[in-house]
Amino acid sequence: MTNKVRIASASLAGCFGCHMSLLDIDERLIDLVAQIEFDRTPLTDIKQIGSCDVGLIEGGVCNAENVEVLKAFRRHCNILVAVGACAINGGVPAMRNQYSLAECLEEAYLSGSGIDNPQIPSDPELPLLLNQVHPVHEVVWIDYFLPGCPPSADTIFTFLDELLSGRPIQFAYRQIHYD
Amino acid sequence: MVEDKPKQTLQNMLNDRESDPTHLLQTLIEVQQAFRYIPHDAIDRLAESLGLGRAFILGVIEFYSFLHLEPRGEYDILLSDNATDQMQGSRLLAELLSRRLAVPIGGTRGDYRVSLGYTSCTGMGDQGPAALVNGRAVTRLSSERIDRMVSLIEQALPLDQWPSELFAVTAGVKRRDIILNSDYSAGAAIRHALEHGPEALLDLLEQSGLRGCGGAGFSTGKKWRFCAGAEAAEHYVVCNADEGEPGTFKDRYLLQAHADRLFEGMTLCAAVIGARRGFLYLRGEYRYLLEPLHKTLQQRREHNLLGRSILGRQGFDFDIEIHLGAGAYICGEESALIESLEGKRGIPRNRPPFPVIQGYRGMPTVVNNVETLANAAMIAQQGAAWFRSVGTAQSPGTKLLSISGDCERPGIYEFPFGTPIGEILAACQAHHTQAVQIGGAAGRLIPATEFGRTLAFEDLATGGSFMVFNQGRELLKAIDNFSRFFSHESCGFCTPCRVGTSMLVRQLGKVMVGHATTKDLDELATLGTLMRQTSHCGLGQTAANPILDGLEKFPGIFQARLRSTSFEPAFDLDASLQEARALTGRNDPGAHLEGGGV
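^ Those are the sequences you sent over. The predicted structure of the assembly is below.
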């Protein structure tokens, strides 16, 4: 065992844009890796999360699997961070909240254009959709929120760097404001 | 229904108005009254004749609760939904009405005979539960009165033929002090001003120490002096009779019983600041007062107390118009009120400039509460020493209180400033009092340990609302009621208030249904403090008061409902899969989620 800080991440109802931004840290990633190691992330392809120090959540909560993953992260991470607009507000996926779930599925699988063999998928392998898309903090307690669509690489790096160093987390204005 | 109305009516209504955009709101109110909604036709014609965009007009219509784009029933019933109405059983009566008339609450019956819904406090806290039927106040609702209303509605008897006792609004004065005990003689205050000149009157007002009775307590003398000193082509005086603070009804009494004093006060102000036009902004809920108020104005014109050359003074021309509100609490804020007077959505302006420098139509404007103006008239007549004979050094004189809730004698009370809360409770015969909400929903929640505190600007300021809760009441319900009130009444202009008021309701809802943890209480406090610090106007800055005061003074009522877990989801996880289960026909273990938090 090392005493490196263990980090996990997941993309729920998101576009992986926040993860791309994480990778955008570029060569600073090399410094970072000296201090951290990854647990379950889309980068490592580990399926089950183990005990972690930090969990980064991208995306909102749109289906039953998202709920399970999010709860597993909360159980295993000391610090859980909502990363990006979708995790914080539901973002683009939450635009479906204007419609009922039935309307969404009917449009996508029954009445939309170019549909062959119309039917609403009901395979037990597929996670069921929630009535509405929710921000992550409505399902579990969240310790930090990193705004942005996506938060810039700089913002993510600053956050991790300060967290690792034990300093109070502070950002330059432009890192978390978009006006 | 609507189509039967001759097209001519609409045309006449529009022709009566000059093509002045500031008439938009008043015209819309008339159209709503005549047609029970605003037809698209009317919007087009108004857009053309007033030179306004359709979107602007739609924005105004959607802003005011009493204007509708869809037809309302012939009988449009709105039940007052203040905490005190609910304590008197209004919710059950609403359900009874809904059943008896076969109309859903919040809906209109298929035959357009009747609509039913809730509205914010209608200012009848001492004689509730109350309702508005086509804008007219019905008081003291009971199941017996509901039966009578149902039968009148089913007979389709026109409202003006309903028995008048249904609409009876009693004065209900339970305690008088120097103001209400003094006789008023019409014109005496104006004569005083004309004899001694404006400067002497301003001195007199400043000596009296009169402060704004709407709640903020700004020096009336100073306000008038600022306005008088502002150079401009026109000056205006506006009386704020948009008494919307839940639980307040003392202005209703003044407008009903002492309108003459109020108009005298306005005329006095006009003499001092040099105004030629004045406005009384009357909340839509008090529409039943419109006719008597017009009558009083007419009498004053006949006695040369209004109009040209008032009391024979050449060049002293002044008259008063009455503008109606249309169900928007925010219009009680003076700059929002001015926007509304100008026919627009009632969105508070940036201050400064204050209305005394740039108010109505950008001109210096005094906006005063009903009670302030009536008091100013009495001070001009009786003198500053008389006014200072009661009250405290910083809060001279008396305050009219509207007392409602759990007491044997609700009603209007005139108390000198400096009176302890306990003494007021004894006077209205309140027993086993748990708490008092002073100053309305935006005011403060006072526990029994603080009943020694006093009614005064330097201690507990109030615009007049005084709601009593006894020990049998669930305070959290009242706090929830106030929070919902603010989320409904937020004008939507600034984010902290628009979003914050809704978030408070949801977060408090989580507490109410027993899903919250201590972390949710921390969130409530953080959110409330943020709103207090960052909202654009007083509404957002005070909207969290009931919750913050509750958390501070009555933590037990929140904690009793908390879960022992560290966090609970904001919604029912398994129930939110129900629709998907129905659509896919699945009920396997994977189609369910365990509830509870982590």
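The first helix of chain A runs from residue 17 to 23. Residues 40 and 114 of chain A are 38 Å apart (CA to CA).

Shout if you want it in another format.
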